[in-house]
Amino acid sequence: MGVLDLITGKRQLWRGVHVPEFKDQTCHLPIRRMPFAPLLVVPLSQHAGNPAKAIVKAGQEVVRGEPIAEADGFMSVPMHAPVTGKVDRIALAPSARGDLSPAIYIKTYASASQEILYGAPQDIETMTGEEIVRAVQATGVVGLGGAAFPTHVKLRVPEGKHIDTVVVNGCECEPYLTADHRIMLEQPGKVLHGARVAMRAVGAQRAIVGVEDNKMDAVEALKLANGVRSDIEIQAVAAKYPQGAEKMLVKVLLGREIPSRGLPSEIGVGVFNVATLAQIGDLLPNRQGLIERVVTISGPGVTKPGNYLMALGTPMRFALEFAGCTDQAASVVLGGPMMGAAIGSFDVPITKGVTGILVFTHQSVNGRAHMFPCIHCAACVDICPMHLNPSRLGMLARKDRYEEMESDYHLSDCFECGCCSYVCPSHIPLVQYFRVAKQMNREKKARV
Amino acid sequence: MTSTTVIQIQTSPHLHAHRSVDMIMRNVVYALLPICAYAVWLFGVSALALLIVSTGACVLTEHIACRISRKESSVGDFSVVITGILLGLVLPPGFPLWMAAVGGFIAVAPGKMLFGGLGFNVFNPALVGRAFLQAAFPTAIMTYTQPLADHRFSEFIASTLAIPLMKAAPVAALSSATPLMMQKFDHVSSLMSALLWGQHAGSAGETCAPLVFVCGLYLIIRKMMDWRISVSMLLGVAVFGAFFHWMNPAQYPSPLVELLSGGLMLGAMFMATDPVASPVTPRGMWIYGIVMGLITVLIRFLGGLAEGVMYAILIGNALSPLIDNLTQPRTYGERKAVAP
User: Fold this and answer.
1) What is the pTM assigned to this prediction?
2) Which of these, B90, B134, B127, B93, lies nearest to B108 by C-alpha position?
3) Minimal CA separation from A394 to chain B, in Å
4) Distance CA A273, CA B197 (A)
5) d(CA B231, CA A211)
6) How far apart are CA B263 and CA B178, in angstroms?
7) Is residue B275 classed exposed, middle or buried when 0-12, 13-18 and 19+ CB atoms within 10 A define those classes?
8) Of A71, A153, A272, A347, which one has the fewest beta carbons inside 10 Å?
9) Given an 8 Å threshold on Cβ–Cβ distance, is B333 in contact with A381?
10) In sequence order, what are the beta bridge partners of A142?
11) Residues of B whose CB is below 8 A from A377
């Protein structure tokens, strides 16, 4: 806790930027289910780690919730059928990254009840930590905050490490996105239940939920659901981007820094997103699999923005037509506007890591602004949440001195939040330079 | 959305703060305008002509330099307008116009464009111009006139219209000393009210420190100028000035007088804060400001000149890359270096 926190009486991020929120468009809209698309595309690689291995064949009928792909090793998760239907084929499908990757195409039975008949109850209270890890892997849950890192991997504490605190990330600091907000508001019990499962698995005695103070109703809902139990603390933090980044939130809530290139477990912390925990709290007791998620569809290019509960594998075209995407659409971004990737095809499906779909119009898309030389105004240095020197890094990048950026200026610590590009008055694409530099360094390393 | 909708692919971030270099530079020009207006009120048409000539010379030089190097003219980013106005403001109001034009050329051609234009100059261009003029025309630049002369709006100060390379004879008769000169060479203190209202001899825009401060405050509030540099430089002068005053109150005036006199306020608010030539690291900015404050005090009290802000800032500019290198921020989560 710093001096500023004492003056304002609130925990907050020192660096970072205040970005316009644009959350009003959807934050008051309850989660609604989106109908099932006639054809779903379930990629086998929706998470960090090894792609899942398909266990169904073309022509096979599947029941909603049934496993259709198995995990390939510990660093992988299984997939489950998002609808009752028939496997059409296993073929390549476009991904958000722009390349093609194998996916299971499932034709939806239009007349099926779409009831989840798969699954069986299990008693979490009697399970050991390792059993919980295995059970979470079987649900196929990955980090739903965007990273899509397999959750069970984070639940297994590395040898010789001790985790004392579970940090629950309810910041949702990206503009436009309100899915986590609605989940905390509508399903606070599931979030807290999921948090207690995580605490049991890692052996932590306490948890802290960090929620930005632009969602005080969510704070109240969580406090009400928590009642008088003291193992979980709900903490409002002053809204600022990128507070939802795990490194930032841990520092704000606990004053601890995750070491460079290290994991939160090194400082005794496990960090989980609220949507992830809500799914665990929901799926684990019934031994079910992750088949749907809440996605915010928003932006100036849609007429029916909202928070939609969508089957995984729903094609973007179907989702956008349902949300009333206008002819003015000029750019579609998956995730938030600060870190999300623009997609190049309407055939990209919804995957486990998609937090939002934002549609920008020609008026709202950033035009190609005139780029000025760096005037050393230090705006980027002042806001970099990692305390890097983006000004210097940018100058080195322009001279292709990528290795120096890494060896002398900590390039690999940059987590690409985009604050530097956001504030730069010269419109220098700093974070974009850094992505290129990192890629060049990776390729160079691979060649050696 | 139709089957033929074309979508663009751009990399994140997809939002941008609505700020740009030309917007910031334009606001600096706005902040300088009240200072210009006050200078014209104090010194009349001579100050007006001086500002027009110095700004015109700077803008023209940059435009021609861009033409010669076959680049798009960079005049539109307004940084050269600031250089021109600042140069006019730090010259004596009766300064010969042709010399001001030469100063403008030197400020922009070798001071800025030769380094590569905006963002690449090592020194503040306006001060490069003034330093050249001080070396080339030492008499003219030390010749100050009293403000609020009777016919200042109808008549030029005699030296203003001096013909190039001819001796400007009538200057000496009208010359008067600035408060710092009187303090240093004659041990005469100026009235506080004269200092506050800027009604004393001095460079065109430096006389009224409170006005300069308020104009700088506008930029600080709009977050278009770094307050840390201004504050640390003023603090440096105040602290070191107080030390000298405490040692020998008879010889050295109080720090308040130091803060209000000479070009300090204009330098600390508008010239030391030139982002291009100052450090970018937070710690570096404080060190930079304090070093400049110290040098200002040393020149004023121990050097041969009455005023030292210009050299203090130029030395600070020269040190700033070094300061930057020595004050790189500690990265979040940085591990302590392990001995190999």
Assistant:
1) 0.92
2) B127
3) 13
4) 60
5) 36
6) 11
7) buried
8) A347
9) no
10) A150
11) 24, 226, 275, 280
B45 lies in the same domain as B149:
yes
Distance, in Å, from the CA atom of B104 to the CA atom of B126, rounded to the nearest integer, reads 8
Its domain, for residue B155, covers: 22-176
Domain end call among B152, B176, B200: B176
Q: What is the dihedral of CA B57, B62, B63, B65, to 10 degrees?
A: 120
Question: Is B333 inside any structural domain?
Answer: no
What integer pLDDT is reported at residue B1 of this predicted model?
A: 64
Tell me, what amino acid is at B296?
T
pLDDT higher for B152 or A188? A188
Same domain, B171 and B105: yes
Point out the least confidently predicted range of A308-312, B17-21, B179-183. Answer: B179-183
Q: Are residues B170 and B41 in the same domain?
A: yes
DSSP H or E stretch at residue B258: helix B255-260
B298 in the same domain as B161: no
Dihedral sign computed on CA atoms, order B245, B250, B252, B254: positive
Domain count, chain B: 2
**Pick among B12, B19, B26 to test the A interface (most A CBs inside 10 A):** B12
Give the residue from chain A lying closest to B324, CA to CA: A392
Q: What digits encode the pLDDT tens for the residues A146-161?
A: 889 999 999 999 888 9
Helix runs in A353-429, H state only: 379-383, 390-398, 402-409, 419-423
Query: Residue B299: pLDDT band by 50, 70, 90 thresholds?
Result: very high
In a domain, B210, yes or no: yes
Residue A10 predicted with pLDDT over 90: no
